Amino acid sequence: MKLYMLAITILMLTASALISAEDVTEETPSRLAPAVGISSSPLSVGYKLTIADHYGIDFLAHIPVIETQKVEDGEELSGLRIGGLVGYSFPMRLEENIGFFMRPQFDFNYLMQSGESSGGGDLSRNVLTIRPGVFAGIEVFLEEIGIPDVNVQMGITAGSEFMSENLDYGGAEVKTTSFNGPFIDKGYFGATLGIWWFF
Question: Which residues, 6 or more positions from 199, have their beta carbon under 8 angstroms from its beta carbon?
Answer without folding.
Answer: 33, 34, 35, 36, 149
